[in-house]
Protein 1
Amino acid sequence: MKKRMLSLVLAGVMTAALLTGCGDSAGSDAGSADGAAEETTEAAETEVSEETAGDDAAAEDSSAEASGDSAGGTFKIGGIGPLTGSNAVYGIAAMNGSQIAVDEINAAGGINGMTVELNFQDDETDSEKSVNAYNALKDWGVQVLDGCVTSACSIAVSAKTAEDNIFQLTPSGSAVECVANPNSFRICFSDPNQGVASAQYIGEHSLATKVAVIYDSSDVYSSGIYEKFVTEAESQSFEVVTAGAFTADNKTDFSVQLQQAKDAGADLVFLPIYYNEAALILKQAADMGFEVKFFGCDGLDGILGVKNFDASLTEGVMLLTPFAADATDDLTVQFVTTYEEKFNETPNQFAADGYDAIYTIKAAAEKAGITADMSNEEICAAMQTAMTEITVDGLTGEGITWDASGEPTKEPKAVVIKDGVYTAM
Amino acid sequence: MDMEMKINKSKLSKSTKNDLITYGMVILTYIVVQLLVSMGHVSSLIQGLLVPFCTYVIVAVALNLTVGILGELSLGHAGFMCVGAFASAVFSLAFKDVLPGGLRFFLALLIGAAAAALIGFLVGIPVLRLRGDYLAIVTLAFGEIIKNIINVLYLGVDSKGVHFSMKDALSLQLEEDGVMLIKGAQGVTGTPNDSNFTVGVILILITLFIVLNFIHSRTGRAVMSIRDNRIAAESVGINVTKYKLIAFTVSASLAGVAGVLYAHNLSTLNALPKNFGYNMSIMILVFVVLGGIGNIRGSIVAAVLLTLLPEVLRGLSDYRMLIYSIVLIVMMIFNWSPNAVFFRKRLKQKFLPGRKAEKEEA
């Protein structure tokens, strides 16, 4: 009987939670549909309900909010990325990076006097969940979207933001289609850009004559870079001798691909992949006595932090990355220190992208003169024009500018790992 | 005897009544939701979920046909969804500017259903001849194979015709003005958003119509007799493989329809472990098991509730997945534990004494 009662009570609690959840979202929806004047009061209401629901991210901010509300209102930035699942590391990094930027901006007086509020939602790297997350943010009253972190989700959501006229800036969605709509922009390099830049870099610096590529054919990022790399290689001084593909289901043994590269006499292996697999490749290459140069893209950033991995193997690995946590400029040092203090880990490129995204939104919003009582359509139109006029000095590049296509223009930085640290080339 | 005849004439048969309740439930929900939407009482989150609800309801009903009526375990229904989704998305993308929206989506539905039915038929031929849990194992493998094939498939079209490759986009050697339809792991992008709630509900009703009529048909009774006692069914001359194949193919093609709905709801479609992997297949199986094996109405309710649950729990941020799983366990206990079933019965007796009396009369 007790057990039965317990399960009944539990079920009751769940139903109650479900109902209250529905009530909240309905309330805030009415707010976003209504006129701008009502928005601020509605916003305050949602905040309270959010706080009671125990949303820590919102709760953290709303303490700072109380003072800001009276002055310039709030500016609501929504974020979307994978906070659970196998890609959680990227989403969490981008969220943390964005959060640091938001805290800094709020401490310095906000954007145009508005306090910035960040609400970061989980999408589990699933486009369908990502659209759900976006809809949840709409209920919350999002004004500008900082997302999504991954490419496919970003494409799915950008179709919706284009419909709703909400300005979207993806920190790290690198596929070409992410910025296909006029309202979407990005911080990171696009995949083709990285492929072309890598090929040009190898060619111009005569790093190799015979290049082997090992890439993940089931990954958008990796295959995107690979394709452009091969196309660009045709007009460069080196030739691509082999291309070994692997897939997400089969990424532990790379001896076949390495042997192929060795037999073909490659003197450089290009790795447009993420660092976890790259660490395995370096290890296996060393085991089979294959001495060769390795060159990677921003996905390799993080390789020095891989657990149970002999970091000395990375000696001499070159990578093209917009962000290096070991850089010595003031901005990076300050960011890395704050990040390490707050989250107890070294920030990666995604954190830097997230940080830059918030500052870019700030720059564009200030240029466009965004105020809290503007509608989403007005904000979107104003931000769109402002984006092409601003120049941002961020963690992932200096003097970043955008054109109307949404692509950033910035110099790729190449670094080489020397004595366990990134050194500029 | 006379009395009985009269009752039969004046009242619909029990199963028809039951089916009408199911249809009525779907239509009523549709009307209520549409009213609420038009009055602005529905949040964007829920509005965005309406099409996914329809998708999962259809696929849950489809799987229930295999699991509940045919009595075989299929762990590859996400694979059939995937086939339907990609076949239709490629079609819609290729004919995006040629055909008008309505006709294109209608044809896409037919193509998706046909493609999934064909694959289901091919998978079924060797496997349904076997006894035991072979179907579960083969469909599990099939789902993974489909996902991996799609991930290495490159398909493009230009003035010379259709090009395809299993290697990379470069080996397609498309002309400058060629269009990429499937870009390997990147999947299909730019599918027109043809799905909406109304279409979804119509498809649910069609699915229900097919499945419920199938169950009550001669074929359906033959299928159920195989489920209940294969030897007895064989001994009265039922062709076991044929009937199993019919049920399985229908189930696969309906899953394909769900895939079409899924593909035309988002502008990007990739075959990830998340949406078309075995995780999804298991999720669909959970809808069916939780709703009651063989209980079509239950599948509908379970699919809607379990799709809704993780989304309304968003407010709890990090804890939502934990709570979601707890709710799953609680629901499972409440539905299936003998004690809970007994308790529910007593509760019913207490509050609805009239209904019990009615039942006894019947």
Note: Strands of chain B lie at 154-158, 161-165, 179-183, 188-189, 268-269.
Protein 2
Amino acid sequence: MGRIKLEDLRKIREETKKKMDVREGTYEYRIVVPMGTSGIAAGARDVLKGFLDAIAEHDLHNVIVTQTGFMGTDVIQPVALVEDREGNKVMYCNLNAEKAKEIIERHIMKGEKVKEYVVSTPLE
Amino acid sequence: MMEELALHIMDILQNSLAAGANEIVLDIEEDEERDTLKIKVEDDGRGMGPDELSKVQDPFYTTKRKSHVGLGIPMFKWVAEHCDGHFSMESELGRGTRLEASFRMSHIDRPPMGDLSGTLLSLVVANPGVRFVIRYRGRGEFVFDSKDVKEILGDVPFTFPEVLRFLREYVEKGLGEVRRAI
């Protein structure tokens, strides 16, 4: 089995582009995962990866994932902020990869806040 | 403490991102003959003067309030030196920062590399505006430049599922071919 070529991505791009044009290229949700040292030590990378894996698994085109530096407080790491197009923010805390998947399946796919993991007030 | 070198790498690259880097080069080399593992990071961020450079390496001077850098660098330095390796950092204000850490590969306390592809994918996908050049040398060489990906993708986001699936396979297989079991 040969190595995959980066050029293969070009085909994927062409196919994806068609879908994107239909949707006008907008996304409904943005997930931000802070990556301070305490967050990373507590598992923030696996949380980010958990979001990405769930997006790939469920074939979602309505969400983007970005990261930022430290946010929140040490004891609630890893955290993630989910923001919708209207600017409503929900901050989730003490996450892991499984909880990240659950947030994708409930919040992003069904629009329902996963109350169990929410920090009481959203932090900026 | 961090149990994987890949997590230390994640943390070190966060400093480059926090320093506003547009380009980050990560170079990892397994040297079996010399029993050495080398990790180098170079960025074009805002850099540091001599004072700040010595403070970020000192666990007793760094505080989160004053600096964007936490205990990550002192921890990484400690691990390298504890594993019969070396640690060095150079920086110039307005130019960027270079960091190099080495480890004796067979040292009993050397953390395993861990999920390096997870670290790289997370960084690349979640920071589409930054160019990451990753070079891994082991049984062969794997080079990944996120600029190439970006050029192909154009305005298609990195977080599209088709792209994620491709990148995951590309990076995992590419690294898998050259990485020894470390």
Note: The domain at 26-117 of chain A is CATH 3.40.30.10 (Glutaredoxin).
